[in-house]
Amino acid sequence: MNCKLINLLFVFLFVLTSCKGTLDLSAHVHVPYCGGAEPTPEMAKGYLQPMDSVFLKKVKSQKMKLVLLDINGFAQIKLPKGDYDLFHKTKGLSIEEFKKLYLPTNNKWYTYKGDSCLRFHMLRPDAGFKVSKKTEYKVLFRSRCFTGVNPCIIYNGPLPP
Predict the structure, then answer these.
(1) What is the pLDDT of residue 103?
(2) For a 10 Å CB count at each end of the chain, is N or C smaller?
């Protein structure tokens, strides 16, 4: 009787562990060269800045999970198998918090497209992927000159010489 119970427990544990997969995640922001001095060919390419965190959400779920990344922008995590959406870390902020951090105030060179643009941006996933037994996923966010990660502002000012 005890052997049957132990075997049943092992089968149950196997089923639970087989429902999860391992995600090797890499997340970086490409920061472009934005002018000034004559760049070297290497400077003109811009550089990659590692992210410190991102949000994941299983498709058709409302819960977002904060994933902390190491100093190089990497993480290895176990997740239930399935389809996921990935969000830039700023999308975990409220619209007011985002505007405080990423919206220039009283600057004649910037045009704000409005809160509706920001709401649309915040709700839209930045990437999507499927977690299976072993999944590697690399995401590259793009930053823009003078506006960074905020797609709802336009820079109309002079460019550096």
Answers:
(1) 85
(2) N
